[in-house]
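To the team - farnesyl diphosphate complex, inputs and output below.
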Amino acid sequence: MSRPPATSHDLTASKFCPPELDRERLPAHVAVIMDGNGRWAESRGLPRVMGHRAGVEALKATLRLCSDWGIGALTAYAFSTENWSRPGDEVNFLMTLFERVLQRELRTLEEEQVRIRFLGDLEALPLKLQELISDATDRTAGNGGIHFNVCTNYGGRRELVRAAQRLARQAANGDLAPEDIDENSLAAELFTAGEQDPDLLIRTSGEHRISNFLLWQLAYAEIHVTDVFWPDFNEKALKQALLDFQSRSRRFGGLDPLTP
Ligand code: FPP
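Output:
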């Protein structure tokens, strides 16, 4: 694979949490909708798929920064259940890109103690990709570093329907009383089972939409939208998102603790 076109990633990015950020109040889990790859490429007169290739570099840089700064989990929306409707060439490019990135980066992920998981209906993916995913998941399962979740063939509504079916099956088998179904038992049937809900959702390229992403899990997340196209998302943009997060008063439906 040839080198991606230049983005604004600084290879000397700081290894430690910047002093402007309050280290005690970082989100434990950041979710990202990596939007704007196509527009980034088109604005440079490049084919859209070059934007996805550059997007991988932005994702790698974001993962490393989150890990270095002490954020516990990063969940990225890589391919939605709706993305199959894109032109066949683009879908094929993305599937091959996922395979190549996994092959190329697995050793680094292992060295950096990243635990990678792929969330979504994985059976619909090409067989080779499924095998690479299974291998990467197994090989990093015991790692103690950042949790990196890649949502692939993921849809929030489909995830909720699947969870409902799984609970219904348990009830029909007599293993679960319907009145015992609560938020915890439903959350345990989601792809994200065991993961803390995201505190912060970042969406790039200026769209103010959730786009069927983590519909249950984002219930109380703070949302940061930036106009930056995903391939240009860099240390400065991440810092801005985190500063924005730290400026919010999170009330979870209650009152501000400073309210008299
Ligand atoms: C949205 O931009 C981006 C995607 C649909 C693909 C994102 C995938 C990656 C960055 C690759 C990740 C790879 C791995 C292995 C985790 P868009 O195409 O919708 O942009 P547009 O809105 O400008 O058209």
